[in-house]
Design a protein that fits this description.
Blueprint (H helix, E strand, L loop, with lengths): L5 E8 L9 H15 L6 E8 L11 E2 H14 L4 E6 L3 E2 L8 E4 L4 E5 L14 H19 L29 H15 L8 H11 L1 H10 L2 H6 L2 H15 L2 H9 L2 H23 L13 H35 L3 H6 L9 H23 L4 H9 L5
Parallel strand pairs: 1-2, 1-4, 3-5, 4-7
Antiparallel strand pairs: 6-7
Length: 389
Amino acid sequence: MTDHQITVGIMKMDVAGRDAGGLSELIQRATKRFTKVLRHAPRLQVRSLTFDGPTVTPEQAGYSALDFVQIGINEKTERKLAFLLIVTEVELAAASVSYLLALPSQLTNVAIVSTKRLADFESDEARDQDLLTRRLTTLMLHCFGRLLNLDYQSDPTNYMARIRAPEDLDGMDHFSERQSERMATSLPEEANDRFSEGNKFVFVLRQLAGNLPRIVRGALRSNPLRIATKLPTMIATALSVIILLIFGGETWDFAVSVSARQLTVFVVVSFLAATLVLYRAFSFRLISTRHGKTSESAVVTAGATYLALVLTLCCLLLLFGLLMYGVVVFVFPDPLMSTWTSDQDGSTAGAHFRLVVFLAAVGILSGSLGGSADSRSVVRNVLFAADET
């Protein structure tokens, strides 16, 4: 629990640098409405920040919301904010839909909101400043609710209703009493706004232990099985290596002769190396303040990211093991199992188990090296974005 007021930053990010469509004035009006709706949380402060750089270069599909998340992490850390809503005027590219209105990242406590599609720019709605203000305010409240882990509601008038089109924002006008109570209760828990004082290592260990339920929840929410499906290069690299090894006599000799202790050490080292490689490839760059302080939010984000990748590799380890066991049982010639090895019988259940575990460990180790070439934006989208609005 925090013993001070919790700060929510609302930051304007004018990518074009020309205050298109009166972005500053629109955000100021929306921030006033946003603050008024959240007046039930007396410990909450809302700050409006102005941000005019750096330049964000669009990708082939447009501006990626995750690029803004990295900027948001930096700003949130340096300004010691609990939550940050970034409002930009450019269109955000989406992975599963044609465009994004917003992208809340519950793992980082950063949400990206775009004003580009609040209204059709060729319609009269685009010139209705009051309508745009109401829609932007509602979208900001919806994203803030998602950052606080509020569930979607079937009531179309609730702020947490699903948004399928900008017009849906017009009918959303309230949080329920139960939601308001939950927000007030969960604000201190979800803020993650502590900063290190003294020994950083002790601070990190303390925050990992204290935030373990939140870390586990964030890792499971990212769905390790789904992450595995976003790593085709890793899977292809792993399979190409282990299929080649299983038809080599030396591999069978090693599997038959290796001790349980040696195999355990190899599997553990391979697993740790693979997770570190993938973590460096797909995690966000987590920074300290200019005073060298580490934030609780950074520790939680790093912990959940690493745990999600560990669970993903566990899924792949099991997959490779089952696949190789199927090859041993149904594909590999039976006579070779006992005659290919140097001086022991390779057809026993113990030999098969050691072979399968060894090949699965080799698979995740070699696959992680190739998997780092997989699309960073795709994997990050699964890791850090709970949903696309």
